[in-house]
Amino acid sequence: MKIKLGEKILGRNEQFALQNRRLLRGRGILCLNVISSPGSGKTTLLARTVEDLKGKLRCGVIEGDIKTDLDAVRIRAAGAPAVQIQTEGACHLSAQQVSRALSELPLESLDVVFIENVGNLVCPSAFDLGEDARAVLLSIPEGDDKPAKYPATFAGASVVLINKIDLLEYIPFDIDRALKDLRSVNPDASAFQVSVVRGDGMQTWYDWLFARRDSVADLKI
Amino acid sequence: MKIKLGEKILGRNEQFALQNRRLLRGRGILCLNVISSPGSGKTTLLARTVEDLKGKLRCGVIEGDIKTDLDAVRIRAAGAPAVQIQTEGACHLSAQQVSRALSELPLESLDVVFIENVGNLVCPSAFDLGEDARAVLLSIPEGDDKPAKYPATFAGASVVLINKIDLLEYIPFDIDRALKDLRSVNPDASAFQVSVVRGDGMQTWYDWLFARRDSVADLKI
Q1: Following DSSP, what letter does each residue of A159-190 receive, concatenated?
Q2: CATH number for the B29-217 domain, one of 3.90.1150.10, 3.40.190.150, 3.40.50.300, 2.60.40.10?
Q3: Which of A83, A117, A136, A175 is a plausible cystine mate for A124, CB 3.0–4.6 Å?
Q4: Do B141 and A143 touch (CB under 8 A)?
């Protein structure tokens, strides 16, 4: 007797992912799964996006962390509804956890739901949460070799934000090398150089966000 | 019929971990499992340690990455034998992979074996590799909230290196907060503030390393 446990678990996750995707598509809501190493700037990106787009794009956020609700508190302070998931040890969010969190968000008044995954450049890439697209962050201090060393995560991204470019004057980082390695695993992703803290490049990110949101809203059932 | 698959897998890993520990203890070799987020400075720390301690401490390195042998190449350039493990997607090293890599290192001429785990602040903490102790790196750009958000990894550390303190003048990071959160999950770990690139604090790390090595050498069977 063979038990294909891996398949079974993924099957369950995929069922919830499908359900989440249907729920959000049905309402014309864009859903982004935001993935990066710890400390690349995911929460700072989302808090600034919420603030800058106030009155233009209604954002809701699901925060994934192993422990603490620090990130949800930051997002609420920026002015958006946020639900914190504490995974209590698990290294990624599951579609089932996201399903529960979605029921706590005021979907009727949202254009976009951001899901900030657990800080981990590896495991989250294997779990579909029902998102429309994935945004992967890579920050300058992490080093330009990361697209080559973590190919699966970068291959799954629709948009890659190279963040903390304000630190380029203090830290060696070869942008051309990072982009070349990104292109070798993912020729199609949009790639933007940003400094969330200083504001560089944020408009390119917002333009991408509005265009993507429009394409999802067009699909509304 | 109940199949406890999780237990079985861990059991197998623990068997190899025990075997690795016996092999290294029998030779009086200190073995450190080095864990951190991607880009915290693990390889740079090990390359500098190898260079600075040349003639004083004979180091060998096992490099774990999902893809590429970039890190083993860097360690060999620094002057130490290095074996690269490419996990091809897996988010952590296993004791079995380490067992195979140990057979490729010249153990008879080593004092210390460093195992650089896959860049991941979560999953590696659950897998014993047969090490004597764990070194966890946290770098300034990752943020001072990481010990609170990733408690299991910090709880398992014997030594914590807060790296890239040369960036403290450009990036906000509350060292007292990080240390307080570290102490709340791990009152016993040694904690050092270092800049591997600039050299700050490296002597405290080397002193720790020699003391730990002496205590392991005393246990030699």
Answers
A1: EEEEE-GGGTTTS---HHHHHHHHHHH-SS-E
A2: 3.40.50.300
A3: A117
A4: no
